[in-house]
């Protein structure tokens, strides 16, 4: 079987199901496992992703208003590779390639190619999507084992954190302008023993005012912009730190502002979702969970290396 993935979490899922050797192509965002970078990339963004977050927001809004695509697919290469299965997503037109990014001509070329799309914003929906993909690529048993294992480990985290104090949290998935983390983010916070004050579980990320964050005054402020790693997020943190009332926030006063890898963990609906729950447990309950991911997937802001 020949599999083309237009989604980073789809690529990770195929590999977790033991079918990585069937991958013939990936999206421009696929980077895990490391070896998939050697596969042909089928997509590219149509705007400069190195812009500051405020400029990215402006360009994306302009292109969406004009009905212009955010991503382009190399349809000639896709046709030449002739995949048996194409994996994509239909949940968010901003975050990754969707079937709508394919032209009608490309869709006709692929009319006999099963297109399986991950299309959810909830943890249960993510795991159901895993089973769906596993069935399409003839790895149903591996899919069931993967989902059972994830559910078991999530339950263990929840069981361990249930009797602990549940710190209040606000998760931001964009800095300028401010967007609150939605989708599975608030669910993961709850699974990991925290209380999300502003984000809506299962729904798309929504914009907010800085005053909303000030009023919520969380014990933990987690900043994990969609598509940004830690280093890139750190370059934009001064935007938040210069806002009025920053130093009055409980999270700032108690040293519990956290920058996390939004690209690799918090915004991918793949098998790494489980690891994101473990990362959150470390952040929210540092005395109960060893900091295995600190300085790799998350770090305090300002940096407090060696302090827990």
Task: Report what the structure shows.
With 308 residues, this protein is an alpha/beta fold. The protein has two domains: 143 residues, 3-Layer(aba) Sandwich (Rossmann fold); 135 residues, Nitrogenase molybdenum iron protein domain (Rossmann fold, 3-Layer(aba) Sandwich), CATH 3.40.50.1980. Strands 7, 8, 9, 10, 11, 12 and 13 form a seven-stranded mixed β-sheet that branches. The longest helix is centred in the middle third of the chain and has 22 residues. It is globular and about 60 Å long.
Please summarize what this structure is.
The protein is an alpha/beta fold and 308 residues long.
Any descriptors?
15% strand, 308 residues, 7-stranded mixed sheet, alpha/beta, 12 helices, 4-stranded parallel sheet, 13 strands, Rossmann fold, 2 domains
Write the layout of secondary structure elements.
Blueprint: E1 3-5, H1 8-16, E2 23-25, E3 43-45, H2 53-65, E4 71-73, H3 75-81, E5 85-89, H4 104-109, E6 115-118, H5 123-136, H6 140-161, E7 168-174, E8 179-180, H7 185-191, E9 195-196, E10 206-207, H8 210-216, E11 220-223, H9 230-241, H10 250-253, E12 257-260, H11 262-266, H12 272-284, E13 298-300
């Amino acid at each position: 079987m020949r599999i083309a993935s237009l989604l980073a979490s789809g690529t990770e899922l195929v590999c977790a199901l033991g079918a990585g050797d069937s991958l013939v192509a990936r999206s421009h965002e696929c980077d895990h496992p490391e070896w998939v970078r050697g596969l042909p990339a089928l997509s590219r963004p149509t705007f400069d992703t190195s812009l500051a977050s405020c400029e990215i927001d402006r360009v994306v809004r302009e292109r969406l208003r004009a009905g212009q695509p955010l991503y382009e697919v190399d349809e000639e290469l896709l046709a030449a590779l002739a995949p048996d299965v194409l994996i994509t997503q239909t949940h968010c037109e901003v975050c990754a390639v969707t079937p709508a990014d394919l032209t009608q001509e490309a869709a006709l070329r692929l009319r006999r190619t099963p297109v399986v799309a991950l299309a959810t914003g909830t943890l249960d929906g993510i795991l159901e999507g895993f089973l769906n993909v596993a069935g399409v690529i003839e790895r149903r048993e591996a899919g069931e084992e993967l989902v059972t294992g994830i559910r078991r480990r999530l339950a263990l985290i929840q069981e361990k954190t249930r009797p602990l104090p549940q710190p209040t949290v606000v998760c931001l998935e964009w800095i300028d302008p401010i967007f609150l983390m939605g989708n599975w983010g608030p669910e993961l916070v709850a699974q990991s023993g925290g209380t999300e004050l502003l984000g809506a579980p299962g729904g798309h990320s929504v914009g907010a005012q800085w005053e909303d964050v000030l009023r919520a005054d969380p014990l933990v402020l987690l900043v994990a912009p969609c598509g940004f790693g830690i280093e890139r997020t750190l370059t934009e943190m001064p935007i938040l730190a210069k806002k009025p009332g920053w130093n009055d926030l409980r999270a700032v006063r108690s040293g519990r502002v956290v920058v996390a890898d939004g690209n690799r963990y918090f915004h991918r609906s793949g098998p790494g979702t489980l690891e994101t729950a473990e990362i959150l447990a470390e952040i929210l309950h540092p005395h109960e969970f060893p900091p295995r991911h600190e300085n790799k997937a998350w770090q305090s802001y300002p940096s407090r290396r060696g302090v827990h």
